[in-house]
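Fold it.
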Amino acid sequence: MSKLSYGLAAAVAAAFLAGAAGAADTVKVKLEPVVSGLNQPLAMVQPKGDNRMFVIEQWGRVMIVEDGQLHGTPFLDIRGLIIDRHPDFDERGLLGLAFHPDFANNGKFYVAYSTNLDFQGDLGQMLWYDHSNVVAEYTVSKDDPNMADRFSGRILSSIAWPQFNHNGHWIGFGPDGMLYISTGDGGYANDWGIGHNPLTGNGQDLTTPLGKMLRIDPETGEAPADNPFVDNEDADPRIYAYGLRNPWRCSFDMGGDNALYCADVQQNSYEEVNIIKAGGNYGWRRMEADKCFNFEEPDNHPASCDMAGLEMPIMTYNNCTAKPDGCDGISVTGGYVYRGAHAAWDGAYIYGDWSKQFGAMDGQIMVGVPNGSGGYDRKMGEVTNMDGPVPYILAFGQDTAGEVYALTSVTTGPVGSQDTIYKVVPAE
């Protein structure tokens, strides 16, 4: 971003905070209900030129929201492909949704989901691994635009996963027409244990797709010729960036320079938000957020470490697990750069945290605003129209007009159909 752009961004940030904030470190917002009756909504996407919003439910359905109403029939139902999940808490399921840039003409869309191991597939799928994470292409039914052809599935990517957690698998199209896939480090904790590189962890291991941002050609599923590691014989050519732990919800800015923002859930002490660049190393497990990290003593951060070549996060905050003083959550949830109708919000990154505690709802809304010096100031969102706590913040969505939505749940696990999507708006 140019100095001029940062200057404009700083002016916008000042107007935003002056017009919508109470205390200097908070921003007053309202969460307006849009639709309810969903099961753990993990993504909401609107194709260009379409008045429908498509929502994925963790248990394996893609639902349509049109004119504020939830269609009764799923657009796509792949519950039979989804691995059985723990009802109290699980990180597996239908995890990602993306529409081809030419969806209006070719009807192609893409889903990411967790399924049973394919023992006849890749040799890396070991018997003791937990599941596989798949990215597949589907097409719309020729007879009904509100129904997908469930027999059209074509697998583009299948990665064996050691544990049930840290799946990542946000998927999205970049402005270059390529399909991006976020992957966690394989699960468990500290990038350690079965399925993890014992010397460096998976995040720093370029031979594995775990702990990465991948970039593939949606037509072939292969790495494009201009990927940063495509000529490195010791690297997976699909890797676009590395050093990630559990990138939970990413997004391309629909304006500005179309930067790729990604929130990366860290270990016990800190949380981070990054702007992902080609070839970038985001530190895990050499670092947790902007602090040095020792996987053998995860809560005791060394005073110094090798930080050469690492990209630093644009925002961090304390995780309540190990840093309760001044903490703001336990699991960061990535959002979107606002590009909607409220001019004072333009360029602000709206995101949040799942909750400040596990056993009770306490979702957090946050706002990052450019500070004019190449960095971001983080503000807490004060929700003014809810008497009780904010539900668990699962994800965020954005429509083609640039408005931002919070996808929430009232349970910790993928059970029931009682969850709500809210529009994030300024409090008057």
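Residues 1-15, 17-23 have pLDDT under 50 and may be disordered.
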